[in-house]
Amino acid sequence: MATIFSPSAVLSSSTTTTTTTKAPLTPPQLKPHLPTPPSKPPLNLATTLAATALATTILAAAPPSLAGDTSPAAYKLYYGTAASAANYGGYGGNSDKKASAEYTYDVPEGWKEKLVSKIQKGTNGTDSEFYNPKKKTEKEYLTFLLGFPKLAPKEAILNNLALSDVDLQDLIASAESVTTDERKDDKGQVYYVYEIDGVGAHSLISVTCANNKLYAHFVNAPTPEWNRDQDTLRHVHESFKTVG
């Protein structure tokens, strides 16, 4: 006798088969995680940082200060020959000042040389002179006298120098203080040092003997210029020395 299948049984069997043979579902692939890019700084902050970096670079690359070059610390060395009036300007002698120099001193950069006439050289022994063009009475100069194998007492030397220098006489007469001292160079040569503090002017003088001559180096300045340029003027004063 034929078997009668129930439709529900067929459906049930078909459904079961379909369910058993269905391929497993593949899990969805996850996308790789990408890092979130940092947010850009606000425009004003970025500008500030760039400006700071640029300023740092400029400051690092800036040339060194030239203040030392323009300050009174710049000098040139002068070579003096202490030539007689007959040999003035090299006539009858060696015109190379460096080769025939008897003394040297520093001159502040920018100062001008005053041409010494034969009359000045013959009367008071002035051999060289420089002055500040901004104030011509701020100056340095050197005089020399023949026939001095050694230094006399300090007071006598200063009085003898004043005899041939009217300005020095007036400065001493009106001075608030006059100090005297002496120093020796690296060769043991003695220099007398005078400092005269007058009412309206200041003077520094160095005197020494060599080559049977007396050399006197003067640094003079009105009081306002002395107060302003004191360090420079003292350097110039201390730079004087004889050669040989």
From TrEMBL:
One of its GO terms (biological process) is photosystem I assembly. Residues 1-24 have a biased composition (Low complexity). Residues 101-241 form the PsbP C-terminal domain. It is found in: Plastid, Chloroplast thylakoid membrane. Its main location: plastid. It holds the Pfam family PsbP. GO terms for molecular function: calcium ion binding. Residues 1-42 are annotated as: Disordered. One of its GO terms (cellular component) is extrinsic component of membrane. InterPro entries: Mog1/PsbP_a/b/a-sand, PsbP_C. Residues 25-41 have a biased composition (Pro residues). This is PsbP C-terminal domain-containing protein. It comes from Erythranthe guttata.
